[in-house]
Amino acid sequence: MVLRIHQLSPAIANQIAAGEVIERPASVVKELLENSLDAGASVIGVDVNYGGLLQITVSDNGSGIFGVDLPLAVAAHATSKIRTLDDLYSIDSMGFRGEALASIASVAKVTIISKPEEQDNAMMLRVEGENRTLSPCARNIGTTIDVSDLFYNAPVRKRFLKNEKLEFQAIEMVVKRFALSAPRIALTLKHNKKLIFSLPPALSEQAKAIRMGRILGNTFMREAIFLDVEHSGMRLYGWISNHRLQRSQNDRQWIYVNQRMVKDKLLQHAVKQAYDGLLHAGRFPICLLYFTLPASEVDVNVHPTKHEVRFQQPRLVHDFFTSQLTKALQSTLDHSDTREYAYAASSSNEQQNTVSEPSHICNDRESHEAARALSPSWSANSLSSSVTSKGYKKTSSVYHPETEFQWVILNERFILVFIKQRPYLADLVALFQEWIEKQLMQKALPLESRPLLISIRYPLPNQWIHKPEQLKRELARVGIQIEYSNADDLLIRSIPLNAPYLDVRRFFNILCELDFFDTEQLIALISRSQIFDPKQLTVEERIEMNQVLLELSLKEEKHNICKALTIDDCRMLLHE
């Protein structure tokens, strides 16, 4: 039977397009924020319910949309940004494809209320599937777009969404990135009617620095290197971290091209090359960079999400980035720093060569004592004996970042943390594992991998001998790449990028005891198989772990990571 060719209906075509543009609630927020920016708004409000899964509302005081144009706003390939083919190659607006609202309206229920200055009253357009109603209403100049029941007509897509917390975290990251690209705009973000943050317009350099500090942290702003250079019509300015400020992932490399947030492999490679030899293996710098060049020199019409760009002269752009970042970094290095990090790099390589036999920071007895210390029956006596019996000092160092959390390191396992002036006892290893698991759960699958310098050979578990491809496929989803050398052995080639302290043999030893596992269990096992040295934690990592501590301290349910101390507990701890 020969299948006939037929034209797809607009509804199906829009849903296919939505699959490229709208991946999750954060994608909706990104598109609506860019529309508000293009409308010349100076005040934007984002109101989200249940992580954007139920409702997303974006309001602005921009130029608005005429009532007669509202039906066109949700029509495919309808835009006010371009009229001729030449316009496509000199775009200076965020949106231009005319796909965003049409894609959103095809997978959600949408209400648009808008009033331009030249119109006497506001108009409201309601869209639900093929049903569209237009009616007058009241509103000041500007536009409000309400998106509810995202993917209500695409249940398969909806099942791939994460929980409320993770989806909102993605939305918050989108809003923060937008806030750095448009500092002149006043921005508020609410979640479930609760104000998350409110950023006033940053019109002066000092105000911009304050906004950046709130988003990226004052530690970064204090340690960052500023650069502002121009060459051949290109300008690169912004802030980059020095060699001391490092992260275990590259999620804080924010680069804007002509005010547009991009994730361009060419620019990321240039940043990586500039830091070559200055960072530990598997570590990444932080950067906030603004790159401007003539619109005709860059093509933003590469992908519907507009995250990818193509440069007319990629080699010139790459070399400009690399040379200027390298020059800025070299200006802050002295000989002692160079020697120190050359030694650190070689030490890191040596550690990777012996990755199969990592050094543990605590033995089983210490692990048992830690679990007992944080159990509901814990007492200060147990902590005092645990600390003093091993000969550790009660106070070895203090850490106090801008989060106002102080760390008093009791030993290699326990820390005393002051959260909002209240003391907590925290299990540092359990806290680190919780932080790693939280990071991995937020990442899209498959997790990104980092190759090992020397592959690790491991005997194939008996229960997996008859289904080796299933094991290989499941491990690849969490960033562990394996190959089979013969019928009885496997070679471990890479580990997850965001789990640099993974004890590979411990992970596989526990895995061999399991008859069945899913992706979430593997991620949990990866987090529990981390072996690290607390002294190697960077400032950024400690700040992020403080955020986890804050969230745990606000929870009512019991856990074995941190516990609030009473006055009697503190007295006993200090005097015994």
Q: Which descriptors would you attach to this protein?
A:
single chain; 576 residues; alpha+beta; Heat Shock Protein 90; Ribosomal Protein S5, domain 2; Ribosomal Protein S8, Chain: A, domain 1; 3 domains; eight-stranded mixed β-sheet; five-stranded mixed β-sheet; 19 helices; globular
Task: Walk me through the topology.
Blueprint (H helix, E strand, L loop, with lengths): L9 H12 L3 H14 L4 E7 L5 E6 L9 H4 L26 H8 L1 E7 L6 E7 L2 E7 L4 E7 L6 H5 L4 H18 L4 E6 L2 E6 L5 H12 L1 H6 L1 E7 L2 E7 L12 E5 L2 E3 L2 H10 L12 E6 L5 E2 L10 E2 L2 H17 L4 H19 L10 H10 L6 H10 L8 E2 L6 E4 L4 E6 L2 E6 H15 L6 E11 L8 H10 L3 E4 L4 E8 L7 H8 L7 H10 L10 H16 L7 E3 L2 H9 L1
Helix pairs in contact: 1-4, 2-6, 9-10, 12-13, 13-19, 14-17, 14-18
Protein model, in words:
The longest helix has 19 residues, at 335-353. The chain has 3 domains: 10-199, Histidine kinase-like ATPase, C-terminal domain (Heat Shock Protein 90, 2-Layer Sandwich); 217-336, Ribosomal Protein S5, domain 2, CATH 3.30.230.10; 358-576, Ribosomal Protein S8, Chain: A, domain 1, CATH 3.30.1370.100. The relative contact order is 0.08. It has 576 residues and is α+β, with helices and mostly antiparallel strands. The chain has 19 helices and 23 strands. Strand 1 and strand 2 form a beta hairpin. The strands form 5 sheets. The protein has an 8-stranded mixed sheet with strand order 5-4-3-6-2-1-7-8, covered by helices on one side. It has a 5-stranded mixed sheet with strand order 9-10-13-11-12, sandwiched between helices. Residues 212-330 form the DNA mismatch repair protein S5 domain. Residues 406-537 form the MutL C-terminal dimerisation domain. Belongs to the DNA mismatch repair MutL/HexB family. This is DNA mismatch repair protein MutL.
